[in-house]
């Protein structure tokens, strides 16, 4: 699939000048492109991605990542990925950085991190610049470089908001079944029996193909769906809990907190925070 001319030009410009920082603040459907998808591509620069106003999935060769509100994603240089939003009006705030010699380990790993107030204020301040930012533009270049430099300090943990892809059709069928029946009280022994596995064999398959247990995978799958339901503002926290298979709202809230770092009721309030700036 080809992107629109706008996205083509944007992706080409990112690596046009190796020494520059490339800055882009714009809506996914810029210039009437009618698209909410940026096809598979990579950069020779590292990418800082922050989005507002919708649901965004970033897909690599190995995993599908969910980028929630009030969080940013760091994508290291060379990582093949595509980006899909649920609407054209999603704001994409991208900063692309040259790879420096002997960078901290932080910049070599893909991750999703909470964005604190300091980082957000700095990011929105960069909204006054767009396009190529050269080292000769001392103020702009220095400010954007400072934003990159503080990331390891303000990003103490990465959210596990990604799901690995099954390597075989048999597990893919099970994963799709779990997603389609998420609201039900699904138990591991029932799933194993339904698909003709022993519990021990199916547990081994999950660990071998996904490097996580059935419970870990299904919990993440449920929480990523819950984030989507909450962000779309179509359902209350109580409704969302039941729609992803939790009969106890407190249990759902505690699980959500462990993974996302905030309560679902508080998370809903954060949607669109400071969106009017920049």
TrEMBL record:
The keyword DNA-binding applies. It comes from the Bacteria. SMART domains: HTH_ARAC. GO terms for molecular function: DNA-binding transcription factor activity; sequence-specific DNA binding. Keywords: DNA-binding, Transcription, Transcription regulation. The keyword Heme does not apply. Residues 172-270 form the HTH araC/xylS-type domain. This is AraC family transcriptional regulator. It comes from Filimonas zeae. The lineage of its organism: Bacteria, Pseudomonadati, Bacteroidota, Chitinophagia, Chitinophagales.
